[in-house]
UniProtKB/TrEMBL annotation:
Keywords: Hydrolase
Domain AB hydrolase-1, residue spans: 60-168
InterPro entries noted in UniProt: AB_hydrolase_1 (IPR000073), AB_hydrolase_fold (IPR029058), Epox_hydrolase-like (IPR000639)
Protein's name according to its UniProt entry: AB hydrolase-1 domain-containing protein
Family: Belongs to the AB hydrolase superfamily. Epoxide hydrolase family.
Pfam families with a match to the protein in the record: Abhydrolase_1
Key word Hydrolase present: yes
Upper lineage: Eukaryota, Viridiplantae, Streptophyta, Embryophyta, Tracheophyta
Entry superkingdom: Eukaryota
Source species of the chain: Salix suchowensis
């Protein structure tokens, strides 16, 4: 077994290398992935959660948490790489995504709900209440930070990508602050009204939306002006996929989001101010989990 600091460095290396050259760690075929990774549905926190698992049952657990608009599938290469080293890789579809239940109420997508789901999952897959290694990306990073904040006893080490820890500011609500800085067309502001952006995404088509999000690499704020494409570009502009994202990958994501829709994932954004209210008891608290 690796010491915590050595595994943390290893996770960082594998996560970065897998994104740069995913074929070095595993077969990119969806069919081969499905045959080599176990898929289970587990009842947690009042919902049925789909989870992808690979590795020995008694091995140390690594929990992978995806972002928006992603799925367990986003971690397929890391699952293969880490399980081959003797770890048990666990990657759920978060609530509202993929093959996991999607509660209808917007208020059912707070960080307390999602962290509660993950604790329920760990209670099944790491039943001795042992701590686990946690890796998050995008919204998965935000959830990972809160998992570490709320339940440091369950987190052995933490690796996050894209989203840093932002301590709660008791004098500033999140949505009003973002609107003041970026304006009404900023993507998070556009996501706030239930049904509105879903209708626009439906006009674009799920595949187009996913191509835009999954290939977006512009180091600048994202704007979604009404009736236009990402950052105001024409909807006829071709989306060129990066080398690490295949047409087969896009088809897999598209099949799941056409089935489930985007509402579940969007509801995470619609709870940003509610999260701010609910996390008041943790104002000034520090994340203690090692990274």
């Amino acid at each position: 077994m690796f010491p915590t600091h050595r595994l943390t460095k290893l996770l960082n290396t594998i996560v970065l290398r897998s994104h740069q050259n995913p074929t070095q760690n595993s077969d990119t075929s969806t069919g081969n992935m499905a045959s080599s990774i176990e898929h289970r549905t587990i009842n947690v926190n009042g919902i049925n959660m789909h989870v992808a698992i690979k590795g020995p049952e008694n091995a140390p657990v690594i929990l992978f948490i995806h972002g928006f608009p992603q799925l367990w599938y986003s971690w397929r290469h890391q699952i293969e790489a880490l399980s081959s080293l003797g770890y048990r890789a666990v990657a759920p579809d978060l609530r509202g995504y993929g093959d996991t239940d999607a509660p209808a109420e917007v208020t059912s997508y707070t960080v307390l709900h999602v962290v509660g789901d993950l604790i329920g999952l760990l209670d099944v897959l790491a039943p001795k209440k042992e701590s686990v290694f946690v890796v998050g990306h995008d919204w998965g990073s935000l959830i990972a930070w809160h998992l570490s904040l709320f339940r440091p006893d369950r987190v052995k080490a933490l690796v996050t990508l894209s989203v840093v820890f932002n301590p709660r500011n008791p004098s500033r609500k999140i949505i009003s602050t973002l609107k003041a800085v970026y304006g009404d067309d900023y993507y998070i502001i556009r996501f706030q009204e239930p049904g509105e952006i879903e209708a626009e995404f439906a006009e674009m088509g799920a595949e187009r939306v996913l191509r835009e999000f999954l290939s977006y690499r512009t180091p600048a704020p994202l704007f979604l002006p009404k009736g236009q494409g990402f950052n105001g570009k024409s909807l006829d502009t071709p989306v060129v996929l990066p080398t690490w994202l295949s047409e087969e990958d896009v088809k897999y994501y598209t099949s799941k989001f056409e089935q489930k829709g985007f509402t579940g994932g969007l509801n995470y954004y619609r709870n940003l101010d509610r999260n701010w209210e609910l996390t008041a008891p943790w104002t000034g608290a520090q994340v203690k989990s090692p990274g």
